[in-house]
Amino acid sequence: MRIDIVSDVVCPWCIIGYRQLARALADRKLEPEIHWHPFQLNPHISEEGQNLREHLAAKYGTTPEASIAARERLTRMGAELGFTFAYTDDMRTYNTFRAHQLLHWAGTLGREHELKMALFAAFFTRRENVGDPAVLADVAAGIGLDRAEALAVLEDGRYADAVRQEMQFWVEQGIQGVPAIVFERRHLVSGAQGVERFGAILDQLTAPA
């Protein structure tokens, strides 16, 4: 089975959705071929990033009370799935274009999935700047990739055009929000559906003809 996941590393529902899907897959002892694809939630954010709560208020009109409630809910859901969200009032969100370039590079080495998981943890658990080349190189080194090569990839931008083209491709397919999960190149599922719902989808796809 092939599963394509369009996502951004600063999207909390992307790691929640993936963890739900992973649990449903494990329950069925399925080991699919998973491919990650780039999407930028905030392509116009500057180098220094923006306070996350202020960003959500400006973009979606999210009130402080709603923001607190959402963070508490995500933290609970993450804990149930074995992932740590460590939100703080001063947490910032960042431009992820460089992160996607690094993921593209890792994909050429067969290590994209590991790096994706490491980047989710870097942003949500350790609150690191996933737009900073030095931070990104450290994350790459943390999973055993060459730090100097990671920095070189980011400095010369060798995969920038490829990432732009791939993001554009998914937009042209009608993807406007993430996670967008495509099963067997045919069945699109949007959002974090929950373990049971993902399980039902998998059962449907693997049922004998």
Low-confidence stretches: none
The overall pLDDT average reads 96
Q: How many E strands?
A: 6
Structural class determined from secondary elements = alpha+beta
What is the terminal-to-terminal distance? Answer: 15 Å
CATH architecture: 3-Layer(aba) Sandwich
How is the largest sheet built, in terms of strand order?
A: 2-1-5-6
Q: Over the alpha carbons, how many angstroms does the gyration radius reach?
A: 17 Å
Describe the main β-sheet briefly: 4 strands, mixed
Number of domains: 1
Q: Estimate what percentage of residues fall within beta strands.
A: 5-15%
Shape: globular
Give the CATH H-level superfamily. Answer: Glutaredoxin
SSE run: EHEEHHEHHHHHEEH
Would you state the CATH class?
Alpha Beta
What can you see in these coordinates?
It contains nine helices and six strands; from the N terminus they run E-H-E-E-H-H-E-H-H-H-H-H-E-E-H. With 209 residues, it is of the alpha+beta class. It has a single domain (2-206), classed as Glutaredoxin (3-Layer(aba) Sandwich). Strand 1 (2-7), helix 1 (12-27) and strand 2 (33-38) form a beta-alpha-beta unit. The two termini are 15 Å apart.
